[in-house]
Amino acid sequence: MSFIRVNAASDFSYQNLPYGVFSTSDNPRHRIGVAIGDQILDLGVISSLFIGPVMSKHHDVFDQPTLNAFMSLGYEAWSEARRTLQNLLSHNESTLRDNVSLRSRAFVSQSEATMHLPADVGDYTDFYSSKDHATNVGIMFRGKENALMPNWLRLPVGYHGRASSLVVSGTPIRRPCGQMRPDQTKPPIFGPSKQLDIELEMAFFVGGESQLGEPIPINKAHEHIFGMVLMNDWSARDIQAWEYVPLGPFLGKNFGTTISPWVVPMEALLPFAESNPLQDPQPLPYLQHEDAYSFNINLFVSLKGTVHIQTHTRNLQKFGVH
User: Fold this and answer.
1) Alpha helices, DSSP H only, in the chain?
2) Is the CB of residue 236 less than 8 Å from the CB of residue 197?
3) 8-56 per-position pLDDT tens digit
4) Hey, which residues does 126 pair with through a beta bridge?
5) What is the mean pLDDT of residues 109-131?
6) What number is the average pLDDT over the span 275-286?
7) What is the percent of the chain where pLDDT is above 70?
8) Sorting pLDDT into bands at 50, 70 and 90, what band is 309?
9) What does DSSP say about strands 196-197 and 189-192: parallel, antiparallel, or unpaired?
10) For residue 73, which of 77, 83, 101, 249 is within the disulfide window of CB 3.0 to 4.6 Å?
């Protein structure tokens, strides 16, 4: 339990403690914070309280405008920082709880904060990590008979996306224009997409040290996964269907990708890890991983649409409406 009161329905529990980047009207500087309840703990204000063997040497990472420097420290630093945060926020620990002056400077109401992209993203890779997703998209473009390509069962199928249009959730996305060929018997046409699609996905941030050309073994991969966010990879399906052969997505996929501002650390999810699904055929040895690292996370989408009704005035006048 934490000394910060947390509503039972809150997503930001003492066991979660996601990281994010925020600013306020009285301080527009981007700062790193941790969410708990309806509050944000400003880590730059309390950086001196991270006194563990790793983080005591790296207080400066919490004075940065993004999480990049912190994520680069690696697994041991992330674990140590989380233990420190849980200790400082515990109802049994007085360091932060009883220091009224420090608390007034360290905590910001979420309602007063503006959230930003949590990291500078130089690149991202889009994976078909779900068999259902890969099958559904395959049906959309190739029909049921050729929906799931044979390589999906044997290796991680993905492509490098572009990061320049990656934005934080809530940013307006403009409907793209491009070439489409709705009638296969006629030449393509140009115009705004009529099949704008959303994709509810999970994304993860990677960090820690790595060297160009040096592989990371599968049993060490978890040490490079910092945390997860919700993601919507917007898609113009009619543009994509015409342009993606043979090199893959281009304008139909590069106009916008939104992610949630809070990064849930993997250590918060590990207590809920489930056994890995049985893979048939068995993957090659370099992809075999025995430790449980699958998560059954219930996700849902709510759509708020707008209906445009156009009615001639004379029709309304028949009912006495002017």
Assistant:
1) 68-72, 75-89, 94-97, 100-106, 131-142, 237-243, 266-269, 313-317
2) yes
3) 999 999 999 999 999 999 999 999 999 999 999 999 999 999 999 999 9
4) 159
5) 93
6) 91
7) 95
8) low
9) unpaired
10) 77
Q: Which residues of 53-90 are buried (b: 16+ CB within 10 A; e: fewer)?
A: eebeebbebbebbbbbbbbebbbebbbbbbebbeebbb
133 catalytically annotated:
yes
Dihedral sign, Cα of residue 149, residue 154, residue 158, residue 159: negative
Whether the full predicted model's pTM is greater than 0.70, yes or no, is: yes
| The total number of residues written for the chain in this structure | 322
Helix, coil or strand: residue 40: strand
Which residue in 30, 34, 3, 10 sits closest to 267, CA to CA? 34
First to last CA, the chain: 61
CB neighbour list of residue 163: distance below 8 Å, 6 or more residues apart: 121, 122, 123, 124
Query: Can you tell me the mean pLDDT for 295-300?
Result: 90
CA distance 264 to 269: 8
Q: Say if CB 128 and CB 134 are below 8 A apart.
A: yes
The one catalytic residue in 30, 59, 116, 133 is 133
Query: Which residue in the block uniquely carries the two structure tokens 């929906």?
Result: 147
Count of other CB atoms within 10 angstroms of residue 222: 14
Residue 12: count other Cβ atoms within 10 Å of its Cβ. 21
Mean pLDDT score across all residues of the chain: 92
Is the pLDDT reported for residue 322 higher than 60? no
Fill in the amino acid letter for 240: Q
